[in-house]
Amino acid sequence: MNALVVRLGTTGCLVHRVDMTSNKYYLLPPTAFQLARLAKNSRAAKPEAEPWVDHEFVTRNLRRRLGPTVIDALVARYNAGEHTPALAKEHGISTTGLRQLLLEEGVKFRRQSITPDDSDRAVKHYERGLTIREVVIEVGYSLGTIRRELHRRGIPMRPSGRWNHLPPKLKADRDR
What we know:
It is a single chain. The termini are far apart. The protein is mainly α. A hairpin with a 4-residue loop joins strand 1 and strand 2. A three-stranded antiparallel β-sheet has the order 1-2-3, with no helix packed on it. The radius of gyration is 31 Å and the shape is flat. The chain contains nine helices and three strands. It folds into three domains: 43 residues, no CATH class; 43 residues; 59 residues, Arc Repressor Mutant, subunit A (Orthogonal Bundle).
């Protein structure tokens, strides 16, 4: 007993003849309609690069990607007082990845304080009406660092909660 099975794929459909007693199937030649459809799809398709050649390969291992001279320069610059967020941004890597790399190099970490420019930006955003969580996203430091910096600079803290607790002036300033 034989049956026909039609399988739809991305390039067209294939028709198989299945022997129901032995559960084997045989590929039938494509019909004229199927050949025309495959020819049309192949002309419309853009030529692609070979899938086994990766042209945009990026090494995920920071040690191999950066190389020993760049790593030595990063260690020297960190020890000279530069901040990890600035170094990470300059080299296009994450702050966590840079800290892990510096840790593997035996660097003794200092307390990461907020830069004066970032402190000014945080104060400006908070005074404009952003919440502390929104300031954290904008500036890129932890919530504790932003709160500590706002307290250090003497900025009065707003009550936590929804925006309806704010004066109308702050709401208007925030929406600008």
